[in-house]
Specification:
The chain has four helices and eleven strands; from the N terminus they run ββαβββββααββββα. It is of the alpha+beta class and 216 residues long. It folds into two domains: 60 residues, no CATH class; 131 residues. The strands form four sheets. Strands 6, 7, 8, 9 and 10 form a five-stranded antiparallel β-sheet that branches. Strands 1-2 form a two-stranded antiparallel ribbon. Strand 3 and strand 4 form a beta hairpin.
């Protein structure tokens, strides 16, 4: 049996990110539970969370208050776009390529990498997005209305965007904006790429005025 497409994911999100469903400006620690998680695994996760009091990283120290945990459906997390705006997404802080790919005619390497990562997330819902050929994955996601715009991220510390590194294959982080078409709802929460389960590649709303999008 192939491994599940998605696992439990942990993400930190600043309180000033647009579209958050909270009425304050507090930073949040998000725990994303995959669709179809077994009751046994979910019980073990809840038990672990009960004893958790703080999360410490190099940049943050977050207090955890189990009695204030809020639960949202994965397809109804973000606020809906404002009237006159169309939902677009931007990866925070970046996406890390899961496979080294070369550009093909008409498709840049970063967009192929983004389509590959989308397929890894959605292959159980849309089997055609899990094709073993990168160009076929790109075709499958664009047939669902997805539009990808990736661009290289120049950094002296690419390893800062991943939870582990391999000397034979250096991390390749890149910026990504995306229109998800009919792939998911405007309120769905999604993360892409290597380390999408540990703090990288979270798609956050970057809505654009409808008139501006039509003129583009």
């Amino acid at each position: 049996m192939p491994p599940a497409a998605n696992r439990v994911a942990l993400h930190y999100v600043p309180g000033d990110v647009d579209g958050l469903p909270f009425d304050d400006s507090h930073d949040r620690f998000l725990l994303m539970v995959p669709r179809g998680m077994s009751g046994h695994a979910l019980g073990a996760l809840v038990g672990a969370l009960t004893g958790l009091r703080r999360v410490v990283t190099k940049a943050h120290q977050l207090a955890v208050e189990p009695d204030k945990v809020e639960i949202f459906a994965g397809d109804a997390f973000w606020r809906a776009p404002r009237p006159g705006y169309t939902r677009a997404w931007e990866a925070m802080p970046a996406v890390v390529a899961e496979r080294r790919l070369k550009s093909v005619v008409g498709i840049r390497d970063v967009d192929l990498a983004a389509a590959w990562s989308l397929g890894n997330v959605f292959r159980e819902l849309y089997p055609e997005t899990g094709d073993t050929q990168a160009a076929a994955r790109y075709a499958a996601v664009t047939d669902l209305g997805v539009r990808l715009s990736g661009r290289a991220l120049r950094t002296l510390t690419p390893s800062a965007y991943v939870h582990k590194t391999n000397r034979a294959s250096l991390p390749q982080p890149y910026r990504l904006t995306v229109d998800m078409g009919s792939l998911v709802s405007d309120r769905s929460i999604v993360a892409l790429g290597q380390s999408r389960h540990l703090g990288c590649g979270l798609l956050v709303p970057r809505d654009v005025q409808t008139m501006m999008q039509e003129d583009a």
